[in-house]
Design a protein that fits this description.
The chain is 3% helix and 55% strand. The protein contains two helices and 20 strands.
Length: 315
């Protein structure tokens, strides 16, 4: 039995939603000065922080005053050895608030879904931006680029350094078992919990759940995945520091495939490229999301992935 429903799985689109009201408040663009940038959820409990000083870009997430994700480096490496996030140089920042009500056309858990958030946008040199949102119930970030017609993404660094137990106890991880391959139907069992000292080098599909004895429920996942490699995570545990780290792992593009046992529904790659995506240079990339709720009941009702999805689009 999985400890959370399949509706937590990454959604590729917000299917057929109608925005009943939309208010964007206080869009303010400022020259960059600060090296630490924060954005809070409407209820003030979730705080996402971005550090832009030092050799790499990093973010962290706290909930109700407790650190959930410690400073974690993030970047995107393009062909030509261009690393978006290395030695970041901030040009401008802007903030806005969103307040809309989504009314799903395709039945969902709720007839109406309030979608309230606060957003921070940081524009960097090298023609890229980082957009960070804080919701009641989670936070998310994504890269955006303005680099012309096409770009090749060689790899992405997405790190989730879970809290080391100060004030919350060490996390219990519910890991997708036996998923040490990119070939998966995403039907793994998540129980029993994975011991922290055994996650090193182990891979999991998303979502991945971390629970704290004296703290909240935390789910790591992604949203708005389109024309890009899906994210898996690989574990890393440093017992001395008590740190449980999750590293985003991405399959390289398959250039040739074979059919498995004459079943055309099951194919596997026989050759791969040396990049994870070749895509538009003018685009927003998938959201990296951290869902945070106080208890299991609230986690089941969390709609963050749906809220982060795009409007209905028919190709």
């Amino acid at each position: 039995m999985q400890p959370f429903p399949t509706s937590f799985r990454p959604l590729f689109a917000r299917v057929g939603s109608v925005a009943l009201t939309l208010v964007t408040i206080g869009v303010l663009v400022l020259p960059a000065q600060a090296q630490t940038h924060e954005v809070q959820s409407p209820d003030g409990k979730v705080v996402a922080t971005v550090q832009t000083d030092g050799p790499h870009l990093s973010y962290s997430v706290s909930y109700d005053g407790q650190t959930i994700v410690e400073p974690s480096p993030i970047s995107m490496t393009l062909a030509g050895r261009t690393v978006l996030g290395a030695n970041p140089s901030v040009e401008t920042t802007s903030r806005r608030q969103g307040n809309e009500t989504l009314e799903p056309v395709v039945p969902e858990k709720f007839a109406e879904i309030p979608n309230q958030f606060r957003e921070l946008r940081i524009d960097f040199a090298k023609d890229f931006s980082l957009v960070v949102r804080a919701y009641d119930g989670g936070a998310a970030y994504r890269f955006e680029t303005s680099r012309g017609d096409r770009i090749t993404v060689e790899t992405e660094q997405a790190t989730f350094d879970l809290a080391d137990g100060q004030g919350t106890g060490l996390p219990t991880l519910y890991w997708a078992r036996n998923e040490n391959s990119f070939i998966t139907h995403s039907e793994s069992y998540y129980q029993p919990p994975m011991p922290l000292d055994s996650i090193g080098g182990q891979m999991s599909t998303l979502p991945l759940l971390a629970t704290y004895e004296d703290g909240p429920r935390v789910a790591v996942t992604e949203a708005n995945l389109r024309d890009y490699a899906g994210m898996f995570v690989t574990g890393d545990y440093a017992a001395r520091e008590g740190d449980a780290r999750l590293h985003g792992t991405f399959p390289e593009v398959a250039t040739d495939v074979a059919i498995f046992q004459d079943d055309e529904r099951n194919t596997y790659p026989t050759e791969r490229a040396d990049y994870i995506a070749r895509t538009s240079g003018e685009r927003a990339f998938p959201w990296r999301a951290v869902i945070v709720e106080e208890n299991d009941a609230a986690l089941l009702e969390n709609q963050l992935v749906y809220k982060l999805g795009p409007e209905l689009r028919l190709d």
